[in-house]
Design brief:
- The structure holds two protein chains of two kinds.
- By secondary structure, chain A is mainly α.
- Chain A folds into two domains: 7-60, no CATH class; 61-263, no CATH class.
- Chain A contains nine helices and two strands; from the N terminus they run αααβααααααβ.
- Chain A has helices spanning 12-27, 33-60, 63-84, 91-118, 126-157, 159-167, 172-197, 205-212, 217-249; strands at 88-89, 262-263.
- A two-stranded antiparallel ribbon of chain A has the order 1-2.
- Chain A is globular and about 70 Å long.
- Chain B has a domain at 2-81 and 139-197: Rossmann fold.
- Chain B has six helices and ten strands; from the N terminus they run E-E-E-H-E-E-H-E-H-H-E-H-E-H-E-E.
- Chain B has a six-stranded mixed beta sheet, sandwiched between helices. A four-stranded antiparallel beta sheet of chain B has the order 2-1-4-5.
- In chain B, a hairpin with a 2-residue loop joins strand 1 (6-15) and strand 2 (18-25).
- The two termini of chain B are 26 Å apart.
- The chains are: A mainly alpha, B alpha/beta.
- The interface between A and B is medium-sized, with 23 and 27 residues.
Chain lengths: 273, 203
C-alpha cells in the first residue's frame, strides 16, 4: 500500500477555505462566524488529540484501555442524545436510556463483527474494535435521538388520543402504538436513506479514506458493505430498545400517561391539567 | 339495607388539591357542580385511575388496585369533554363499530357517519361520538365530564335520555357539569365542588 503522506503544515491552505466561509458570513451578516470558528478549532483539537490517543491505544493493545476508550465514547454520545432533545425525560433517565440502548446495540453488533467476520488477534484489538464501535455508535446515536425526539413530541401532541384509548380500557402499549410506530419509522429513516444513496449520490467517508490510503476500491467496498450492514443492524436494535424503553418510562404500571415526566426545552415541565 | 346496593365507594381519594369521599349506588346518578378549575375533571380522572392518586376506591367491594388498570377502566369509564381520535375515519376509532351504531343513531347521527373523516366532524358531533364510544363498553360506572358542553338544547336532551336509559339497567353515573339546572335535572344527589372539596347541596 502506498499513499501520499500529509504534513500538518500542508493543511494550512485547505483551512483557509473555512476562513473564506467565515468571511462570507461576516459579509452577509449571517452571524455564523463565531460558531464556525469555534467548531473548526474544536474539530481540529479533537481530531489531533484522538490521533495521539489512538496511536497510544494501538501500541498498548490492552483490553483495559480499549474498554476505557469505549466507555468514554458512550459517555459523550449519551450526553449528545440528551442535548439533542427538545422535550425529554429527567436528564438522568434520558441519559440512562440513550446510553443503555447504545451500549446494547453498538456492543452487540461490534462484537458480532469482531468475533465472526473480522476475527483480529486479539479479538478486541483496538485498531479494529474502536473504529467499528465508533462508526456504529455515531449512527445508532442519530437513530436513537431522532426516535426519542419523535416519541416525546408525539406523546405530548397526541395526548388526547392516547388518553382516550387508556380511558377506554386499552393497555399502555396499545394506546401508544401509533406514537411508537412513528418514532421507530423516524429513527430508521436516516440509515435507509443513506443505504439507498450510498455509491450513487455519495461515496462514504470511510471508503474514500481507505481508497486515499491506498486500499484497492474492491476491498474498500467490502469493508464499507460490512460497516453499512452493521450500522443498519445497530440502528435498528438501538432505536427499538430506546423507543420501547422511552414509551415504558412515559407510562406507569397502572397504564397511565405520565407526561409530567417530560421536561420541555428551557426546563419547563409539561403540565397536567 | 342501603349498603348492599353500594356500587362504587370512594374513600379519602386525593389528587393534588382535590379530596373526596362518597358512595354511589347502583343505577344512581350524582352530579358534581362547580366552576371550571374547581377540580371536577381531576376527581373523575383520579377515580378512573388515569392520574396518580391516593385513597381507596372499590367497585362492588373489590379494591381497584387488585385488578389491572385497563380492566378497571372498562368498568369505571371516564368520558372526556373533548374526545381523542387516533385514526382517520370515525369507525376506525371504535373497537366494534356495529356495537356502537345503535347508540350513535340514538344520539342523532346518521348510520353512514362511520365512514366520515374525523377531521370533518364538528365539536358537537365529536362529543356525541365520544360518548357513544364509551357507552358501547357497557361499563358499570360512567364518569361523564361535561358531556354536553358542545351540544345544543335538542342534542343535550338526547344525551340525557340515553344516560337515563343506562341508569335503568343499573349503570351508576357521576356527572360533572357547570350547569346547575342540568345537575338538578339528571341527578338524584348534587354535590358542589369548590377549592377541591365536595359538599352535598340540598338547595
Amino acid at each position: 500500500m502506498s499513499y501520499i503522506r500529509l504534513e500538518y503544515s500542508e493543511l494550512a491552505l485547505p483551512a483557509l477555505l473555512v476562513v473564506m466561509s467565515g468571511v462570507c458570513s461576516i459579509a452577509l451578516q449571517l452571524g455564523l462566524e463565531r460558531q464556525l470558528a469555534v467548531a473548526a478549532v474544536r474539530m481540529s483539537v479533537q481530531l489531533i488529540l484522538v490521533g495521539y490517543v489512538l496511536t497510544f491505544l494501538f501500541a498498548v493493545a490492552s483490553p483495559f484501555w480499549t474498554a476505557a476508550a469505549a466507555v468514554v465514547m458512550v459517555a459523550f454520545a449519551g450526553h449528545e442524545i440528551v442535548a439533542r432533545q427538545k422535550r425529554r425525560l429527567e436528564a438522568i433517565w434520558m441519559y440512562g436510556l440513550g446510553a443503555g440502548s447504545m451500549v446494547l446495540a453498538a456492543g452487540t453488533v461490534t462484537s458480532l463483527a469482531l468475533l465472526t467476520q473480522l476475527r483480529p488477534d486479539p479479538w478486541y484489538h483496538p485498531r479494529y474494535s474502536l473504529p467499528l464501535f465508533g462508526m456504529i455508535l455515531g449512527n445508532t446515536m442519530t437513530g436513537i435521538s431522532l426516535g426519542l425526539d419523535v416519541l416525546m413530541t408525539g406523546a405530548v401532541r397526541d395526548r388526547l388520543a392516547v388518553e382516550a384509548r387508556l380511558a377506554l380500557g386499552q393497555t399502555r402499549r396499545q394506546a401508544l402504538l401509533p406514537v411508537t410506530r412513528d418514532a421507530l419509522r423516524n429513527g430508521f429513516m436516516p440509515i435507509i436513506n443513506s443505504m439507498a444513496a450510498t455509491g450513487v449520490v455519495s461515496l462514504p467517508g470511510m471508503m474514500t479514506g481507505q481508497i486515499l490510503a491506498g486500499v484497492e476500491p474492491g476491498d474498500a467496498v467490502k469493508y464499507q458493505l460490512l460497516i453499512m450492514f452493521l450500522i443498519a443492524g445497530g440502528t435498528g436494535l438501538g432505536t427499538l430498545a430506546a423507543v420501547i424503553g422511552g414509551a415504558h418510562l412515559l407510562t406507569d404500571a397502572r397504564h397511565r400517561l405520565r407526561l409530567e415526566r417530560i421536561i420541555s426545552e428551557g426546563g419547563v415541565k409539561e403540565t397536567q391539567s | 339495607m342501603r349498603t348492599q346496593l353500594v356500587m362504587l365507594s370512594v374513600l379519602s381519594l386525593t389528587r393534588l388539591h382535590v379530596a373526596a369521599s362518597f358512595e354511589l349506588l347502583a343505577g344512581e346518578c350524582i352530579a358534581i357542580q362547580g366552576p371550571s378549575g374547581a377540580g371536577k375533571s381531576l376527581l373523575l380522572r383520579a377515580i378512573a385511575d388515569l392520574d396518580p392518586n391516593e385513597g381507596t376506591v372499590t367497585l362492588d367491594g373489590i379494591v381497584r388496585e387488585t385488578m389491572p388498570a385497563p380492566i378497571w377502566r372498562r368498568q369505571v369509564t371516564y368520558v372526556a369533554p373533548e374526545p381523542g381520535w387516533w385514526a382517520d375515519t370515525v369507525q376506525e376509532n371504535f373497537a366494534k363499530w356495529e356495537d356502537a351504531l345503535p347508540l350513535v343513531e340514538q344520539l342523532g347521527l346518521p348510520a353512514g357517519c362511520g365512514a366520515w373523516n374525523v377531521q370533518r366532524l364538528s365539536s358537537g358531533e365529536k362529543q356525541r361520538l365520544g360518548l357513544a364510544r364509551a357507552l358501547a363498553l357497557r361499563s358499570r360506572v360512567l364518569l361523564l365530564d361535561e358531556p354536553t358542553s358542545a351540544l345544543d338544547e335538542k342534542t343535550t336532551c338526547l344525551v340525557e335520555a340515553i344516560v337515563a336509559e343506562c341508569r335503568s339497567t343499573g349503570t351508576g353515573v357521576i356527572w360533572c357539569t357547570h350547569d346547575g339546572l342540568q345537575a338538578r335535572r339528571v341527578a338524584s344527589r348534587v354535590f358542589v365542588m369548590s377549592g377541591g372539596r365536595m359538599e352535598e347541596s340540598f338547595a
